[in-house]
Specification:
Length: 441
């Protein structure tokens, strides 16, 4: 009987440890979860395309275009806690399937939105899409770290996060070749009669559907794969007296950990920086150089995402050699200086700096996420604690609004001062974390 039990254990693909981690990483399950990171990055990078397209078609101010990000990241903020409660009561797998379903619905809503030619309907579609992505991020960020031994949790999350850059690149390529044309949309519409411009604008909006058709196909395939694939629970085994921590108990637990909330605040500020820079890089190029067109300036975002990808790999190497707080202090300080350069240098090198600053963005999100979640010793609170960190993505909804508003009153270039100040705050967060590590050592 004992030999039979040992044989069963030997033949199992994985063994779930009491803390929710696995004895080894299951390749198929980890790959499927990692693909999710690329999918929500595709959606986020397409927003940068939509901002530029909507600016011309709907004749919007920079302040109004920022509501693309507000609708998108606002969905994350509203749904993250309900998503965590759903996951806690069910499973990470069901949370992911629910997220993929809502993501699909949001993509589908682009079709009626393009026919109604109404900015508000597009914003609603983005909000629904973001509801699905909130489920995915709340599930996948924590789940990726749990799919294997505890000691390599941060490594797995960084590997999965690398797919963000891949998704960003795919999204910008889809937008460049399927949405943008060789002409300058704003200038072309300005030279037309009102009726001709409206018809031309409708055609431009219809092109926004093209990338979402392909995304929908991938989402349907992913839903099927997650339904038919067996996944571990990722839930810690606890005694009856410890099971099912209530939301109130979790909040009481987290309220006694100020370092956790510092991490959430840092994530909020950092997401505002990243979203602000990426949202307005193409707008900055078009504003500084009116002879450029949308398809050409899309290259700047493509280069930005390549820099993001390279920066993350370089950071992974540096993090294996040096203290992560030292690496991130250096990255955030350099990022602050580069954004100040974007703000005050009135020539093409400012655009190059906007591209290059993505080199230092790579390790920020996963490092802040992992360090903040490490504060949570009691894993009964992991889902809710993870949800609050995901909710911090709402920084990408708030700060770009102020940047767009400042741009309308001054210039697009000067509006980047908000990103520079915010990056300085992120730098101070990593200084405090460095001091914490020194005290702990």
């Amino acid at each position: 009987m004992e030999n039979e039990t040992q044989e069963n254990v030997k033949n199992k693909k994985w063994i779930e440890e009491p803390d929710g981690y696995l004895n080894k990483t299951p390749p198929l399950q980890f790959i499927l979860v990692t693909i999710l990171f690329a999918l929500w990055a595709i959606a986020a990078s397409l927003n940068d395309i939509l901002i530029t397209q909507f600016k011309a078609v709907f004749a919007l101010s920079d302040f109004a275009t920022a509501f693309v990000q507000s609708a998108f990241y606002g969905g994350y903020f509203v749904i993250a806690i309900p998503a965590s409660i759903f996951i806690k009561k069910n499973s990470y797998k069901l949370g992911i399937i629910a997220g993929l379903g809502a993501f699909s619905l949001g993509c589908f809503l682009f079709f009626p939105a393009s026919r109604l030619v109404t900015y508000q309907v597009f914003l609603f579609a983005l909000f629904v899409e973001a509801i699905g992505l909130s489920f995915l991020e709340t599930s996948a960020n924590a789940y990726s770290s749990l799919l294997g031994p505890r000691k390599s949790a941060t490594v797995r999350l960084n590997i999965s996060q690398t797919m963000n850059a891949v998704g960003d690149i795919i999204g910008i390529l889809l937008g460049k070749y399927l949405i943008f044309t060789d002409g300058n949309l704003k200038q072309e519409m300005a030279s037309m009669s009102k009726e001709a411009a409206e018809q031309f604008g409708q055609q431009a909006l219809a092109r926004t559907l093209s990338p979402y058709k392909y995304v929908l196909i991938v989402l349907v395939i992913m839903i099927i794969l997650f339904i038919i694939t067996k996944f571990p629970s990722g839930k810690p085994k606890t005694s009856d007296s410890q099971k099912n921590a209530t939301f109130k108990e979790t909040m009481n637990y987290l309220s006694k950990r100020p370092r956790y909330w510092h991490g959430v605040a840092a994530q909020f500020i950092y997401m505002g920086v990243q979203t602000g820079v990426w949202s307005f890089t193409m707008r900055l190029a078009l504003d500084m150089f009116p002879q450029f067109n949308e398809r050409f300036v899309a290259n700047f975002m493509l280069y930005s995402y390549i820099c993001f990808f390279v920066g993350r790999f370089v950071a992974s190497y540096l993090l294996s050699k040096f203290s992560e707080t030292k690496v991130l202090m250096s990255y955030s300080f350099i990022g602050m200086l580069m954004i100040l350069y974007i703000t005050f240098v009135p020539n093409i090198t400012a655009i190059y700096a906007a591209i290059g600053v993505s080199l230092v963005f790579g390790p920020c999100w996963p490092t802040i996420f992992a360090r903040t979640l490490e504060v949570v010793d009691d894993k009964r609170h992991t889902e809710t604690a993870s949800a609050f960190i995901v909710m911090a993505i709402v920084g990408g909804a708030v700060l770009p609004i102020f940047q767009g508003l400042l741009s309308d009153f001054t210039t697009m270039q000067f509006s980047f001062i908000i990103c520079a100040i915010s990056m300085a705050i992120v730098f101070l967060y990593f200084v405090s974390e460095y001091k914490y590590d020194k005290r702990k050592a």
